[in-house]
């Protein structure tokens, strides 16, 4: 039967549907029809017909599309806004990895190169669902010491993950907005790659500890919400001061970030600058701890005070960071889906000095040589994007994970990854690897593909490989074959671009980037690089004038 469906009062995504977005469907077969093997695994596919949309008389958004069902009357057809990824699927996937990488009773039995995979429940959601925390690394640098059981967290009677010495921590999370399923597929791709036998994945495990929270909002996912939790809150606006009672997963994520930044726990009242009271309320968490703190502080016993401090918990943004502290964090990325802007891109933070701005832009730039669908031109590093407010509820992005992590820790490499549900605007040219002779290079299309779970999973892998490039640890990097040639060359090009942008905005009278301090000396090598880029642009212009058809291919 040919069926036409009208979905009434869903989110108004007219811009995305105008760009060719279509819903997806899958068919679960009944017992009688065995001939259609195409749907034996009940895989999701996009419907063929382009949907139409309108605003009805009740000012409701109506999406309409047609689809022909199978003749098998026992078959069930499912439709979805985009490729779904459920809480149950996540639990099954993590259980599979747990069985694949069991932890031995004696860690000394493992080799340094063995994969360390540990799953634990960091907190329970408001509806008592587990919020999982994964630790992925190698056994290199592992100690017999366990990580601290943070206040109010880790409710299950299970030992904490082991502590790793001399390894920086990378924290990544997904599905704070439950409808943004591309983030789960990116996380899947990242996990698959990190536990693979690939040489580059092994180097990552040898040098870093990955702390992954695959689903920050399991209640919203289970209930089918698009952007909120059970209470109707956008959890990505509460990182500045989350409540354990009201926003347990965000409270847990913030506590985890602070723990690995400082290397120990902190309590609000004990780290606030210029605080009038450094004692905890007796009703806040631990009467015995409060009783011990007062005489310790009054007697000026610094060592005992620090020992007690390590047993306490949490801080606010007012405390900010100790600039002299060697943070235990290396990178933070929160994964999202995006409905309006095409492509896959990142949001970063904005800084008052050119050095930090350059460093913030390096990682997203490296993604352009490792993933054909990453759009650096869509990335946003502006101060405005750090503090703009939502149109509907007026909540500021200052409370998002990316901005709050900067405010708490001073971490320059703090990002939001955004993935369009549908497609991109262009594809990047992917340069060959150093060992390109042995690399099987598929023919690269210049037409942006329709995004699928496989495309998103590839983004997760590219995020991991780009970390190796960022750390200068990649033995088979594409960087040498790219226009940048090296990390130094990449930073020099970014510096030149920032200076040019600042000079241009100053001439136009804009204040958006004019506050950046660019008064840093430029080396002769940088001058030569700028001259080379200008010469290259001039050569292309002359080619365009005389031979426009050749110039088109030259641009690719």
UniProtKB/TrEMBL annotation:
Query: Can the keyword Cytoplasm be found in this entry's annotation?
Result: yes
Return the PROSITE patterns for the record.
Answer: PEPTIDASE_M14
Q: What are the EC numbers?
A: 3.4.17.24
**Named cofactor requirement(s):** Zn(2+)
For this chain, one GO molecular function annotation is: metallocarboxypeptidase activity
Keyword Cytoplasm present in the record's keywords: the answer is: yes
**What GO biological process terms does the UniProt entry carry, in alphabetical order?**
proteolysis
Write the signal peptide boundaries. Answer: none
Q: Which residues form the active site?
A: 418
One GO cellular component term of this record is: cytoplasm
Peptidase M14 domain location is 83-471
Compartments it resides in: Cytoplasm
- Gene3D superfamilies noted in UniProt: Zn peptidases (3.40.630.10)
Q: Which family does it belong to?
A: Belongs to the peptidase M14 family.
Q: What is this protein called?
A: tubulin-glutamate carboxypeptidase
Source organism (scientific name): Aphis gossypii (Cotton aphid)
Its taxonomic path starts at: Eukaryota, Metazoa, Ecdysozoa, Arthropoda, Hexapoda
């Amino acid at each position: 039967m040919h069926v036409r469906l009208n979905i009434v009062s869903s989110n108004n995504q007219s811009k995305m549907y105008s760009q060719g977005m279509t819903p997806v469907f899958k068919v679960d077969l009944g017992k009688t029809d065995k001939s259609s093997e195409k749907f034996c695994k009940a895989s999701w596919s996009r419907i063929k017909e382009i949907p139409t949309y309108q605003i009805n008389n009740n000012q409701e958004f109506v999406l309409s599309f047609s689809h022909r069902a199978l003749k098998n009357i026992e078959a069930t057809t499912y439709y979805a806004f985009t490729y779904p990824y459920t809480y149950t699927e996540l639990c099954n996937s993590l259980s599979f990895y747990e069985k694949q990488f069991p932890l031995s009773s004696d860690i000394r039995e493992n080799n340094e190169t063995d994969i360390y995979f540990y799953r634990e429940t960091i907190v329970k959601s408001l509806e008592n669902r587990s919020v999982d925390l994964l630790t992925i690394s190698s056994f290199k640098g592992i100690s017999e010491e366990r990580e601290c059981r943070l206040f109010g967290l880790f409710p299950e009677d299970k030992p904490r993950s082991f502590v790793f010495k001399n390894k920086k921590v990378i924290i990544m999370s997904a599905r704070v907005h439950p409808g943004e399923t591309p983030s789960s597929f990116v996380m899947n791709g990242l996990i698959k790659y990190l536990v693979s036998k690939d040489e580059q994945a092994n180097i990552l495990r040898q040098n870093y500890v990955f702390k992954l929270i695959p689903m920050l909002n399991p209640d919203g996912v289970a209930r089918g919400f698009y952007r909120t939790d059970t209470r109707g809150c956008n959890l990505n606006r509460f990182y500045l001061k989350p409540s354990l009672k009201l926003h347990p997963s965000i409270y847990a994520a913030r506590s985890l970030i602070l723990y690995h930044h400082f290397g120990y726990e902190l309590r609000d009242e004990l780290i606030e600058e210029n605080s009038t009271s450094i004692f905890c309320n007796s009703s806040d968490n631990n009467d015995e701890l409060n009783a011990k703190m007062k005489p310790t502080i009054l007697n000026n016993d610094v060592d005992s005070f620090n020992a007690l401090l390590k047993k306490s918990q949490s801080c606010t943004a007012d405390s900010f960071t100790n600039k002299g502290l060697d943070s235990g964090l290396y990178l933070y990325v929160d994964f999202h889906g995006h409905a309006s802007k095409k492509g896959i891109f990142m949001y970063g933070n904005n800084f008052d000095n050119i050095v930090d701005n350059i460093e913030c832009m390096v990682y997203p730039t490296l993604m352009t040589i490792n993933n054909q669908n990453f759009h650096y031109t869509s990335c946003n590093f502006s101060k405005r994007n750090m503090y703009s407010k939502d149109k509907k509820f007026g909540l500021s992005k200052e409370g998002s994970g990316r901005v709050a992590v900067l405010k708490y820790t001073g971490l320059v490499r703090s990002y939001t990854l955004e993935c369009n549900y549908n497609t991109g605007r262009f594809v990047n040219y992917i340069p060959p690897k150093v060992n390109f002779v042995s690399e099987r290079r598929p023919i690269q299309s210049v037409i942006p593909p329709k995004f699928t779970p496989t495309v998103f999973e590839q983004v997760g892998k590219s995020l991991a490989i780009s970390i190796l490039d960022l750390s200068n640890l990649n033995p088979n990097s594409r960087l040498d074959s790219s226009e940048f040639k090296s990390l130094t060359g990449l930073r020099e090009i970014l510096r030149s671009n920032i200076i040019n942008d600042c000079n241009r905005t100053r001439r136009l009278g804009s204040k958006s980037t004019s506050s950046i301090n660019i008064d840093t000396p430029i080396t002769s090598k940088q001058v030569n690089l700028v001259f080379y880029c200008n010469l290259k642009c001039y050569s292309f212009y002359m080619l365009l004038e005389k031979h426009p058809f050749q110039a088109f291919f030259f641009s690719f």
